[in-house]
Amino acid sequence: MTEPGKPPLSAYIRTKNEARMIGDVVRAALQVADEVVVIDSGSTDDTVKIAESAGARVIAHEWLGNGHQKRFAEEQCRHNWLLDLDADEIITPELAREIAAQFESGEPSFHVYRTPMAFVPAVGDAWVGFGGSVRHKLYDRRQFRAPAHAAWDQFEIPAGTPVGRLKSPIFHYAFTGAEHLMEKLNRNSSVRAREAPLKSTPMLVLRILFALPFYFLKRYLLDGLFRGGVYGFAFAMMSGYGRWLRDVKMYERARKERGER
Fold it and tell me: Which of 94, 105, 167, 174 is the most buried (most CB within 10 A)?
């Protein structure tokens, strides 16, 4: 049964040792979600206790991989309309009101909604309107499901599908500092280099030799990180390096799998 005043919406979050922010994330999601489901894959800190105290329903489940874990989470939710959150993503009051408005006349007008993401850097104000990304966080699981994949967890939307647009961003507290960011980039580059389709060795060699400046410039200029000042420059450098590191790791994989020395 849906809580009075709440839309029939379930939020789900995947966790492992996310005590840093999980309480705030759950409470923020409950501004609009009728339930918050946390899928925890073996936390050894206070993640589970904090999440439950904040109002979440916690389910322990072994880690299956990024997309597979989301699929499992989708199946645990009570409602068909889902809000996909990471354990460092905050729903602002403005976004909560905007989401709730989609349900005022019953079912939302679209089956999926584009949601802007705003990075909150370790120092300085949130990067609203630049440097972030766009995700499809609000969706109907009867129409869309997370991909059954170990590395990828973003579903593809067929060309021509009508997509709604939310204006208020989710605030993404992705890292606490440069060390934390580099740890995440290193981990993510390993997963993607291992799980993505293998590229040819000559292509990887060209990327290793020449692509790093372009990875940086894409983040700094095209994604607008120049608006973030010195820290925006530093973040673009680290982000570009993380993308380049994936090429290096895939090159290593290619040489090993093809028996090259």
Answer: 174
Give tens-digit pLDDT for 162-201. 999 999 999 999 999 999 999 999 999 999 999 889 999 9
Q: Give Cα separations from 116 to 10, 18, 91, 119, 213 (angstroms).
A: 19, 23, 11, 10, 26
Q: Following DSSP, what letter does each residue of 4-42 receive, concatenated? A: TTS-SEEEEEEESS-TTTHHHHHHHHTTT-SEEEEEES-
For 172, phi then psi, to 5°, come to: -110, 105
Asked whether the beta carbons of 154 and 210 are under 8 A apart, the reply is no
Pairing of strands 89-90, 170-172: antiparallel
3-state secondary structure of 222: helix
Average pLDDT, the chain: 95
Question: Which of 25, 69, 65, 32 has the alpha carbon at shortest distance from 47?
Answer: 25
Angle at 228 between CA 225 and CA 233, to 5 degrees: 60
Answer for the pair 13, 22: CB distance below 8 angstroms, yes or no.
Answer: yes
Residue environment code for 111-123, b if the CB has 16+ CB neighbours within 10 A, otherwise e: bbbbbbbbbbbbe
User: How large a percentage of the chain has pLDDT more than 90?
Assistant: 91
The reported pTM is 0.90
- Residues 102-156: tens digit of each pLDDT: 999 999 999 999 999 999 999 999 999 999 899 999 999 999 999 999 888 998 9
Residues making up the chain, counted from first to last: 261
Return the closest-CA partner of residue 70 out of 88, 86, 50, 92.
86
Residues facing 115 on adjacent strands: 135
